[in-house]
Write a structure and sequence with these properties.
Layout (H helix, E strand, L loop, with lengths): L11 H13 L3 H6 L13 H4 L9 H33 L8 H28 L13 H9 L3 H23 L7 H31 L2 H36 L6 H24 L2 H8 L4 H15 L4
């Protein structure tokens, strides 16, 4: 059984993305930071994303620190993934160079916005670092990760990209938007980020469909395996950073945790990261709808089998 759907892509959506991009365009200094600094008396990442409520033995101060460690990594992860997203979108814009110039403009704007986001997230790290204890390390190297990701097929990279940009929006809408207890600057960063990512997810979806229509059954089957490989690579990054962040937190929290508590801190950090960066995306209804229109039942079963150990470990 192979997929036979030919996707109906409305070219007018490119123009809509350009129109919205122009209307909501923001500047990092003027609109987001506005001369402010982070308030370290407040949490960064909301409890619904950090999963800190699974650690009832932490004090209020420790819960705040736990959320700040995760919030710092959250910004660094976005700086990381936008490195390969921007490069891939710039590459696929070639398909519109001598065709639909509105589509080309939409993708050029997308790339420009991703470069702006990267720069903003790099600045956040320099702003956060002085306010937190020394010893934090963000271990994945953005260029190395981007090189590895971009070695996969365009179909697989666009699938991963669409997944990421859908979960960005889901996190904002479900957890960050209504939160009143987190640092207002940190919240604003993700408000403005969300405004532009909303257009990016639409463009990802259209370009992923265009790419899917070019593939034969054998190419698509190989691309499914490459997507599985990319998700596994993301999980490797998540495991590495969760371990580093848990050890950093335990080291700077200011008291000794017993073995069971230290293990729980690490398990909660890993579970939170697997939820944030993998499970919340692959369970997104829109992502499942688009992916489901491209793959057959056997390919879906392969993807689910690969995801089961990751998603099953998330509480």
């Amino acid at each position: 059984m192979s997929h036979v759907t030919h996707h109906s892509i409305d070219p007018g959506r490119y123009g809509k993305c350009v129109e919205v991009s122009k209307r909501i365009r923001w500047d990092t200094d003027r609109d987001v930071i506005r001369g402010r600094q982070f308030d370290f008396s407040k949490k960064f990442l909301p409890d619904g994303l950090s999963k800190v409520l699974q650690l009832p033995f932490l004090t209020a101060d420790e819960k705040r620190l736990f959320s700040q460690v995760q919030g710092r990594t959250y910004a660094n992860i976005f700086a990381l993934v936008e490195r390969f997203i921007g490069a891939k979108v710039l590459e696929i814009s070639r398909g519109h160079w001598l065709g639909d110039q509105v589509a080309l403009e939409a993708l050029v704007r997308f790339t420009d916005e991703e470069l702006k986001h990267q720069e903003m997230f790099r600045r956040l790290e320099t702003m956060i670092a002085p306010g937190m204890p020394g010893g934090y390390g963000f271990l994945p190297r953005p260029d190395d990760v981007a090189t590895a990701v971009l070695a996969a097929s365009t179909w697989a990279v666009l699938a991963l990209t669409c997944d990421i940009e859908l979960f960005t929006q889901a996190h904002y809408r479900s957890s960050i938007q209504a939160e009143t207890q987190i640092d207002p600057l940190w919240k604003d960063v993700f408000l403005f980020h969300w405004k532009e990512e909303s257009q990016h997810a639409i463009l990802d979806e259209m370009e992923w469909m265009r790419e899917d229509d070019r593939l034969d059954a054998q190419q698509r089957d190989k691309a499914v395996d490459e997507l599985i490989g990319l998700v596994g690579a993301v999980d490797g990054i998540v495991q590495m950073q969760a371990k580093a962040d848990a050890e950093y937190f335990v080291g700077v929290a200011g008291r000794v945790f017993d073995h069971a508590q230290a293990r729980a801190i690490h398990a909660t950090m890993l579970g939170a990261y697997r939820w944030q960066y993998i499970a919340s995306g692959v369970q997104d209804a829109r992502f499942l709808e688009v992916l489901g229109s491209m793959i057959n039942a056997e390919q879906g079963a392969r993807i689910n089998a690969a995801l089961a150990p990751i998603v099953g470990a998330v509480h």
